[in-house]
What does this fold into?
Amino acid sequence: MNALADLLREMIASDGPMPLDRYMGLCLGHPVQGYYVTRDPLGAAGDFITSPEISQMFGELLGLWCAEQWHAIGSPHRLRLVELGPGRGTLMSDLLRAARVVPEFFNSLDVHLVEMSPVLMKLQQERLASSGIQATWHREIATLPEGPAIFIANEFFDALPVRHYVQTPVGWRERLVGTDPQGRFVFTLANEPERAMTRPAAQGTVLELALTSQQVMGEIASRLTRQGGAALIIDYGYGKTAFGETLQAIKAHQFVSPLEDPGEADLTVHVDFAALKTSAQAAGALVFGPLTQGDFLNRLGIHQRAASLSRNATEQQAQNIQIACDRLTATGEREMGTLFKVIAVTQPGLAAPAGFEEDQP
Ligand code: SAH
It folds into this structure.
């Protein structure tokens, strides 16, 4: 058993069962024992792999997308380029390499990274320093400087904590994390129902609420509305709010129970893009999408990029480029091109950003 599990048991013994968002927040972000605080979880040897780690083309295409958006908002002299949850810094490094082909854009950039993990922050610092990039790190978005900004977030919102509620004969009751007599973690229900929640649903229905995600989205959108700019959000998720739960735990590329070995597995949810859209629109911003990642990357020209990279590559490299391109865009039911969705959020008054032209806000 682990130290975080002992701490959680003590907390539950003294305060009673805890809300799921508190449990998830501690498992991922406890300042000493949290999953992201103690390791680099990415890559083939880690627990999961992300699009920028699959191919440099992902970050490069996003870099050109940012350059176009910079132009669309009037080519501001100074632009905050903000990445939320930058992992190993791979996306940002690839993005900035592509951005150099538009020197006025590149020279306007003031790079900010929002990261809670000291381990990943160090990797990001090394990665960006080796590309000669100056950047500023933040623990949360509240400390970002004012001014026009472009935000990028790939697999960030899926790590923000959620709450669960279960429909019972007395109404919706919150699902909490408690312990059984053997000290194992188990789900229990709050004694009192949530009287303000009146949504009808069959007994046993679970409702997952991503309030932190909605609040973060609202803050970003309100900033974009006041100060100008755009955000590009990419994540495993769904377009229409629905009942049901999506919390999952992954360790070494395998599903495990979210209650087993806290802090040792990655906990994520599928992102509710409809809820993000509602929060962004309520703050006055425009929302485009969601599109599937496959459609988005195809429209940005990933196949042309793959062909041009392959021209200077060995046969083996060209084959790998093609495999990566297919993996990012594949449209099978359980493949990344379909499961991952993309939305763009912009200041009011802008036309649809690159990739979203066929979509109305
Ligand atoms: N975007 C990267 C990494 C995705 S993993 C990629 O695509 O490869 C999730 C990232 O978000 C990690 O960098 C993790 O440390 C960070 N993160 C998760 N929750 C966070 C939070 N609440 N605040 C800041 N960063 C967070």
